Automatic annotation (TrEMBL):
Gene3D superfamilies: Immunoglobulins (2.60.40.10). Residues 42-88 form the SD-repeat containing protein B domain. It is found in: Secreted. It holds the Pfam family SdrD_B. Transmembrane segments: none annotated. Keywords: Secreted, Signal. One of its GO terms (biological process) is carbohydrate metabolic process. InterPro entries: Ig-like_fold (IPR013783), Sdr_B (IPR033764). One of its GO terms (cellular component) is extracellular region. Residues 50-88 are annotated as: Disordered. This is SD-repeat containing protein B domain-containing protein.
Length: 88
């Protein structure tokens, strides 16, 4: 939009704004405005078989497929063939 009190001058596709150089003695440019949007978060990891039972994921310990994983919010998923899972 055109309301500098409410919109961002950043390109919505790239999040970039035009380059701006402040002159000597000018540390503030109140004509610039931009809103930043956090990228979507993901939560996930890996379910593995702890062959040596040390509680640490060591090289070579295989992922466990088809394990149900549930968040406290009720959202569920299942590990993939490699033991990995992700919540978007």
């Amino acid at each position: 939009g055109g309301d500098d009190a409410k919109d961002s001058d950043a390109d919505p596709a790239t999040g970039c704004v035009a380059e701006t150089t402040l002159g000597v003695g000018h540390r503030v440019d109140l004509t610039l405005d931009m809103g930043l949007v956090s990228p979507p978060n993901k939560l996930g990891d890996y379910v593995w078989q702890d062959d040596n039972k040390n509680g640490v994921q060591d090289d070579g310990e295989p992922g466990v497929p088809n394990v149900p994983v549930k968040l406290s919010t009720g959202q569920t998923t299942t590990t993939g063939p490699d033991g990995k899972y992700s919540f978007d």
